[in-house]
Amino acid sequence: MIRRLVGYGRYDTQAQVDQLNRLYVQYRVFVNFFLPVMKLQEKVRGGSRVQKKYDAPQTPYVRLLASPEVSHAVKAKPRAAYTQLAVVTLKQAIDRLLDALKPSSVR
């Protein structure tokens, strides 16, 4: 996911590393709360073909809340964090951090 976001360039100065670390924090929140993922449920091999069955797309946050194995006390922290989030401002922050990583500064 990260390589799709920032590419395969080399970021080796301390300023670039600090910028990437700030970007990772914001992007982790965006992915876990707002990007749905389809989980593989089953693979069925029929000769040389493999048929895959997926469940409905859900965000990791929704999966956590739906999990009966996770206690209510553990679920409270992500719920509180989610109430403070706004997807538009989060995406704008990610875009600003990406713009600060100039491609011309990558070797």
Describe this structure in words.
The protein has a two-stranded antiparallel ribbon with strand order 1-2. It has five helices and two strands; from the N terminus they run H-H-E-E-H-H-H. It is 55% helix and 12% strand. By secondary structure, the protein is α+β, with helices and mostly antiparallel strands. It has one domain. It is flat and about 50 Å long.
- Major sheet strand order: 1-2
> Could you give the distance between the termini?
21 Å
Strand content: 5-15%
What is the molecular shape?
flat
Which stretches are low in confidence, meaning pLDDT under 50 for 5 or more residues running?
Answer: none
Q: What is the mean pLDDT?
A: 90
The number of domains: 1
Which structural class fits the helix and strand makeup? alpha+beta
E-strand count: 2
- Helical element count? 5
**Sheet of most strands:** 2 strands, antiparallel
Radius of gyration: 18 Å
H/E element sequence: HHEEHHH
Share of helix, binned: 55-70%
Set down the secondary structure blueprint.
Blueprint: H1 2-6, H2 14-34, E1 40-46, E2 49-54, H3 60-66, H4 72-83, H5 87-100
Antiparallel strand pairs: 1-2
Characteristics:
single chain; 107 residues; alpha+beta; two-stranded antiparallel ribbon; 55% helix; 12% strand; flat
Give me a quick take on this structure.
This protein has 107 residues and is of the alpha+beta class.
